[in-house]
Each structure stands twice: as C-alpha cells, then as structure tokens.
From TrEMBL:
Superkingdom of the source species: Eukaryota
TM segment ranges: 32-51, 71-91, 111-131, 151-177, 189-210, 231-253, 259-281
Species this protein is from: Moniliophthora roreri (strain MCA 2997) (Cocoa frosty pod rot fungus)
UniProt xrefs under Pfam families: DUF6534
Biased composition (Basic and acidic residues): 352-376
Protein name according to UniProt: DUF6534 domain-containing protein
Amino acid sequence: MALPLANFFVQVAVEEPAMSTEAPKLNLDNTMGAAFVGLAVAGTLYGISVLQTFRYFTNPGQDDGWPIKTLVGAVLFFDTVHHILISHTMYTYLVTNYNNPAILVECVWSLLAEVLFNGFTALLVQSFLTLRVWKYLRLTRPHESMSAANWFVTAVAVVLVLAEFGCITAFGIMALVRVKTFADLATMKWLSILVNALAAAGDVYIAATLCWLLQNSRTGFRRSDTIIKKLILFTVNTGALTSLCAVASLISITAAPNTFIYITFFFCIGRLYANSLLATLNARKYIRESADQAEYNTTTGAFRNVGTGSANVGTRGAKGISIQIKTTQEYITDASPAKGKNSRGSIGDDMEMTRVQHSDNSDSEDTLAKTSHEIV
C-alpha cells in the first residue's frame, strides 16, 4: 500500500520579458494530474462499494450475525471518511489555492490523515481473510486444528497483517506531527516502501494459502468441487486486484519518487479492499445455488434411465473415493381381467427415477458441505 511520499518541488521560471503579463506555466501532469485521476477512479469504486453494501443489507437470504454486519458497516464507514479526506485534499490544492502555486510544496493535513483510514480498511478486510484461512484449516483438518503446522500457516498471515497496520499507524502519526512539506515527507520514504512491501506480501500470501487449501480439498463430489472451483476463482480475483495495486504502488514510488503517480494506486487500494470483501459476501448465494444446480443436474442425469429395477451409480473422485448405490424396487399390480391374479414386476425403462433415498457414508462430503457453509 503506497503512502503519500514524494520529494516534490515547484520551480517557477522568473525569466520572462519585461512587458509580459503571462502567468508562469507549471507542469502538473505527473503530480496533481495523477492524483486527480486517482480521485476519479476512487470515486467510481466508492460508488460500487456503496451499491454492494446496499445489496448486502437488503438481501433477503442474508443471515449473517452481528459480527459480519458490523464488519461491513465499519469498512463502509472508513471508506467514506477516506473518500471525504482525499476529496478535501484535491479541492484544497486545485480549487481553494488555484492561484497560489506555493501551496504545492506543502502537505495538506487531509493528505496525511487519509493514510490511517486506508490502513483501517486494510486491517479489517485482511483480518477477515485470515480468519477464513483459520476456519478452513480447522474444518478440513478437525483432528489437527491445534497442530503446529496449522498455527504456523495462520500466524504468518497474522504477522504480515499486524506488521502492515503497525507501520501504517506509525507513518500516519509521525506524518501528522512532523511533516509540513513534501521535503519533510521525503525523509520517511523507507517506511513508505516497507508498508508497500508488507501489503503486497500479505495479500499474496493470504490468497495463495486459500487457493492451496481449497485445491487440496477436492474429493470428486460434484457439489463440493463446484463450490471449491468458484471459491478459488473469487479468491484469485479479489487477491490479485489488491496485490497488483500494492505492487504497482511499490514500483511507482521506487521508480518515480518525485511524482504522484503512486497516489493513483494509493487512492484506489482501500476501495479494492472494500469491494473484494463485499463481492465475496454477496456472491455466496450465487455460489451455493450454482453448486446445487450442478448436483441436481448430475442426479437427474444419472438416474434418468434405470435398467430392470437396479441402478448402479459410481462416483469416483480424484482421491479414489467411490460411492456405489444399489436400489431395487418391486411393485404389485392389481390383477387384470385377463389374468385374474396379482402380478409382480420391477420398474422398467418406461419410468423415470427422480429420487433415490440412500444413506451417505462419506465423511468427506459432510465435511466439505460444512466447510462450504462456513467459508462461503
């Protein structure tokens, strides 16, 4: 996550004709121009996050408890405050002080304060994703929930998240107390680079860990595998967006420290965190319904044509798990006038079996179903 840091100086040319009344021209394309682009993109993403929040709270199938609802509300609150602060920053530079070029060497207080609120958003969303890692480890490995390996996997994510938040908090407080100009801010460049590196590392680690755990949980059951595939897709997409934004901020602040190009990414990364959380929560119903539809299609297709009263269904997964169901049904029909007696037979090809009741002896399917409910 990039932080407002640039060694930015405005140099006004004083060599001009004696009778000239033209104002000196300043090249602000890669400074205030870049920051303005970041504000515009951040505003668009903020609108999307507000829409997703409205959809979350008005979804009739939403049954989350107060902790998740509080999380969503807090993320939107911090996102809103952050957008107000960056809007104040750009308004101060480009409107209030339009004819005051000297302001361009000073750091407006809102440009420093917004760092903290971006940090709060990142902390909440990354903590939520870290909790998902722990839940998945606990549900898929119930006998190893307290093992050293599970603790280590989760602890690495926790350390990265807390280290990033600690550096952001330190940067924000130090900047508000000590920084008056961008020249002062340049002395804190090392801390800004550290925060960027920790943000990128945390996002990549959490996304990669979730994908690895999900991939290793495949069993061959259609419903569970459908959910896992979609969870992997959402994890990669949401993790990739925040990771790429953090990496882009890190590269730009290192390669072009005297510009505001990194602010384009910095203004947007908080919105990406918020939208990744909301997209994950709002997509749960879609993921479950698509998995149920896949299971229904498989079941009706497998039992559409039944031989002469027995059905053998084999489902073999990637880990060698197989289920075989044998069903035999007999029926007695009333005697026809020609035969004058009862006749015994079995269900033939002319009847479609739409439902087969059987006991499921697979612990793997039960575990994956519970995991899907907890994680999705």
